């Protein structure tokens, strides 16, 4: 008998549009001979299943079920592809934990912590050979904030929402007079803001997942952007960024990066597939941790998809591994 899998998408943030694109791709590549797939849309006050003919059926939040006529559908597990809140910040994971429904992504605690860039760096910064940029975490903005930042950190700076994703509300600040506007943009997205010194280096993003009793670090993708940094446009607009998979690294760099990435995955107690962004500093080759994404994009051209293909693995097999792992 086929397992019933809820493919959850949508969300409460601006990342919902990316979540919908990811869900469409995942739905196409899942093994429909092995699983019955139900795409569940989650929006504020509107959780529903949409049938193939477009009819909407509300989700019963008491047990995360859906009534299709006289048939009540309950789910054996959840494939979570909901970027941002509530799918990536632990809220949805906590809900499923209470209902004892397994899911493909990190648990509630890991999801909540890793959504906070400042807290995540504090946890991983003592891993050997891992470095983090000097930074300040802000919980409010007042008249002294700009002076405090300029006193403690060196320009250029990155200013970003501490709990955001897809680089929404993120700015690169080169001059002191740009700082106020950058802070306003970040605080418009989040009540916490992270300001950190710019690291000059080659930028990479790398996937890692656990399945069949082992942790697999995928080939890294090197990000070569025509933009100042890997912002929303660079991530999602065609032709703005060159993505090289596998990225150009020496054997020593590959070995060191893979060791660090596996330790980050373990130390943060991750599950499923995550994506970690990092720099290799130009002059020193040092590994600088940027951030972790616990519900990475799964579009046809997403970095994880590129990396899975680079190891010669069919995407369907990759998704099957993620689903089967949640039942172990």
Topology:
Layout (H helix, E strand, L loop, with lengths): L2 E8 L5 H14 L5 E9 L2 E5 L5 E5 L4 E4 L2 E3 L3 E4 L10 H9 L8 H7 L2 H8 L5 E2 L3 E4 L6 H8 L4 E5 L9 E3 L5 H9 L5 E5 L3 E11 L2 E4 L3 E5 L6 H5 L4 E4 L6 H17 L5 E9 L5 E7 L9 H8 L4 H11 L3
Parallel strand pairs: 1-2, 1-7, 8-18
Antiparallel strand pairs: 2-3, 3-4, 4-5, 5-6, 9-12, 10-11, 10-12, 13-14, 13-15, 13-17, 15-16, 17-18
Helix pairs in contact: 2-3
Protein name: D-alanine--D-alanine ligase
EC number: 6.3.2.4
Function: Cell wall formation.
Provide a compact summary of the structure.
The chain contains ten helices and 18 strands. The chain has 328 residues and is of the alpha+beta class.
Describe this entry's structure for a reader:
The chain is of the alpha+beta class and 328 residues long. It has three domains: 3-105, Rossmann fold, CATH 3.40.50.20; 113-132 and 199-312, D-amino Acid Aminotransferase, Chain A, domain 1, CATH 3.30.470; 140-150 and 157-195, 2-Layer Sandwich (Dna Ligase, domain 1), CATH 3.30.1490.20. It is built from ten helices and 18 strands. It has helices at 16-29, 91-99, 108-114, 117-124, 145-152, 179-187, 232-236, 251-267, 303-310, 315-325, and strands at residues 3-10, 35-43, 46-50, 56-60, 65-68, 71-73, 77-80, 130-131, 135-138, 157-161, 171-173, 193-197, 201-211, 214-217, 221-225, 241-244, 273-281, 287-293. The strands form three sheets. A seven-stranded mixed sheet has the order 6-5-4-3-2-1-7, covered by helices on one side. Strands 8, 13, 14, 15, 16, 17 and 18 form a seven-stranded mixed sheet that branches. Helix 2 packs antiparallel against helix 3 (108-114). The chain starts with a strand and ends with a helix. It is found in: Cytoplasm. Cell wall formation. Its main location: cytoplasm.
């Amino acid at each position: 008998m086929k397992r019933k899998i809820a493919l959850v998408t949508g969300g409460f943030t601006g990342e919902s549009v990316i979540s919908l694109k990811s869900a469409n791709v995942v739905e196409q590549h899942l093994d429909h001979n092995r699983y019955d797939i139900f795409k569940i849309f989650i929006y504020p006050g509107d959780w529903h299943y949409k049938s193939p003919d477009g009819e909407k059926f509300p989700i019963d939040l008491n047990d995360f079920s859906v009534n299709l006529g006289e048939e009540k559908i309950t789910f054996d597990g959840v494939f979570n592809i909901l970027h941002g809140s509530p799918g990536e910040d632990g809220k949805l994971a906590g809900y499923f934990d209470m209902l004892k429904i397994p899911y493909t992504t990190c648990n509630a605690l890991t999801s909540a912590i890793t959504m906070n860039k400042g807290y995540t760096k504090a946890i991983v910064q003592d891993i050997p050979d891992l470095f983090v940029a000097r930074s300040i975490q802000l919980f409010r903005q007042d008249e002294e904030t700009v002076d405090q930042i300029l006193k403690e950190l060196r320009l250029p700076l990155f200013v970003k929402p501490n709990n955001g994703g897809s680089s929404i509300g993120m700015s690169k600040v080169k001059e002191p007079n740009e700082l106020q506007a950058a802070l306003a943009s970040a605080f418009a997205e989040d009540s916490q803001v992270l300001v950190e010194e710019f690291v000059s280096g080659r930028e990479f993003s790398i996937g890692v997942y656990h399945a069949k009793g082992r942790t697999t670090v995928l080939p890294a993708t090197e990000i070569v952007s025509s933009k100042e940094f890997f912002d929303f446009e660079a991530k999602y607009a065609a032709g703005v960024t060159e993505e090289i998979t596998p990225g150009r690294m020496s054997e020593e760099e590959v070995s060191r990066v893979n060791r660090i990435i596996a330790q980050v995955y373990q130390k943060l107690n991750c599950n499923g597939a995550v994506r970690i962004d990092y720099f290799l500093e130009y002059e020193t080759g040092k590994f600088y941790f940027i951030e972790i994404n616990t519900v990475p994009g799964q579009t046809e051209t997403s970095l994880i998809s590129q990396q899975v293909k680079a190891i010669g693995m069919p995407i369907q097999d990759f998704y099957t591994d993620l689903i089967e792992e949640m039942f172990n």
